[in-house]
């Protein structure tokens, strides 16, 4: 409820102080933590609430926040029907101004693939989308966690070759 009100407010008020943005980020962080730790009996309610909220017209102008909210739904996906409910929200949230997909859309898809198809399929999706900074950062984190230092180095060197000045790093 607080998140939706903040999203609505940001479109109609002077938010130059950044406080509303802080509230939105705080809400999204707390929702994500709540979803990670939710009791099984609450999964359906939380999933349905996230889907309904992400479809709210308030997110039309703030799609990046809609996708960030939708990321929390991934914790509850156990079948293709649930995945489809998430995918059905994507057209409502749309793409960035340049027509490219929001990185969080790709991260949501990656999470769904990993949950439904397994790590091998997720790794393939990750490598197919390695050109996206957020996906590459995740690949680097995964390689580091696996202590695969040659792959970590290769991913970083390749990123530097593509952007030697490092402006794509976010």
Distance between the termini: 30 Å
Gross geometry: globular
Structural class: mainly alpha
Count of DSSP H/I helices: 10
Q: Please provide the count of β strands.
A: 0
User: What is the helix/strand order?
Assistant: HHHHHHHHHH
Residue windows where pLDDT falls under 50 for at least 5 positions: none
Helix content: 55-70%
How many whole angstroms does the radius of gyration measure?
17 Å
Taking the sheet with the most strands, its summary is:
none
The domain tally reads 1
Q: What is the element layout, followed by pairings?
A:
Blueprint: H1 2-10, H2 19-36, H3 43-54, H4 63-71, H5 80-87, H6 90-93, H7 103-117, H8 119-128, H9 133-145, H10 149-162
Summarize the structure.
The chain has 170 residues and is mainly alpha-helical. The protein has one domain. Helices cover 66% and strands 0% of the residues.
Account of the protein in words:
The protein has helices at 2-10, 19-36, 43-54, 63-71, 80-87, 90-93, 103-117, 119-128, 133-145, 149-162. By secondary structure, the protein is mainly α. The protein has one domain (2-129). α1 packs antiparallel against α2, α3 (43-54) runs antiparallel to α4 and α7 runs antiparallel to α8 (119-128). The radius of gyration is 17 Å and the shape is globular. The protein starts with a helix and ends in an 8-residue tail after the last helix. The model has no long low-confidence stretch (mean pLDDT 87).
Descriptors for this entry?
170 residues, mainly alpha, 66% helix
């Amino acid at each position: 409820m607080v998140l939706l009100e903040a999203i609505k407010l940001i479109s109609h008020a002077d938010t130059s102080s950044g406080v509303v943005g802080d509230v939105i980020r705080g809400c999204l962080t707390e929702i994500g933590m709540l979803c990670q730790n939710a009791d099984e009996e609450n999964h359906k309610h939380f999933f349905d609430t996230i889907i309904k909220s992400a479809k709210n017209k308030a997110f039309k102008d703030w799609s990046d926040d809609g996708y960030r909210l939708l990321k929390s739904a991934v914790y509850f996906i156990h079948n293709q029907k649930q995945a489809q409910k998430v995918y059905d929200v994507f057209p409502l949230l749309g793409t960035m101004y340049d027509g490219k997909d929001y990185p969080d859309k790709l991260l949501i898809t990656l999470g769904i693939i990993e949950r439904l198809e397994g790590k091998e399929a997720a790794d393939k999706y990750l490598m197919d989308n390695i050109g996206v900074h957020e996906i590459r950062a995740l690949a680097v984190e995964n390689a580091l966690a696996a202590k695969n230092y040659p792959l970590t180095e290769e991913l970083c060197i390749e990123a530097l070759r593509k952007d030697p000045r490092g402006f794509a790093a976010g």
